[in-house]
Design goal:
Layout: H1 2-19, H2 22-39, H3 41-53, H4 59-79, H5 85-91
Helix pairs in contact: 1-4, 2-4
């Protein structure tokens, strides 16, 4: 049963990745990041403690940006599943290439 739920979520997000405008996707992903930030207390506290040990400023912004990065990475993964090597390489930017 749980496999069916995962499959359904996969299909929903794959549809969103392929057929909705980028503005809508960005709003959705930012909202998901905020939801995980708010309700995933266990991992948020782990990140908070680790960042405090490293003496970082603006810890909460770093944590939210981390959740946002995971959301955007997941959506990009769904978009690139059926892409060719050339399509993926066209999205990559090399810096300091000599």
């Amino acid at each position: 049963m749980i496999d069916f739920v995962y499959f359904l979520l996969y299909k929903i997000f794959k549809f969103i990745a392929n057929y909705t405008p980028m503005k809508f996707q960005n709003l959705l992903l930012d909202g998901l990041a905020r939801l995980f930030y708010k309700f995933d207390k266990k991992h948020t506290n782990i990140m908070r403690i680790n960042l405090k040990m490293c003496k970082f400023d603006n810890i909460e912004k770093i944590i939210l940006d981390t959740y946002r990065n995971f959301a955007y990475f997941g959506m990009e993964f769904l978009r690139n599943q059926n892409s060719s090597k050339e399509q993926i390489l066209s999205k990559v930017e090399f810096k300091n290439e000599e």
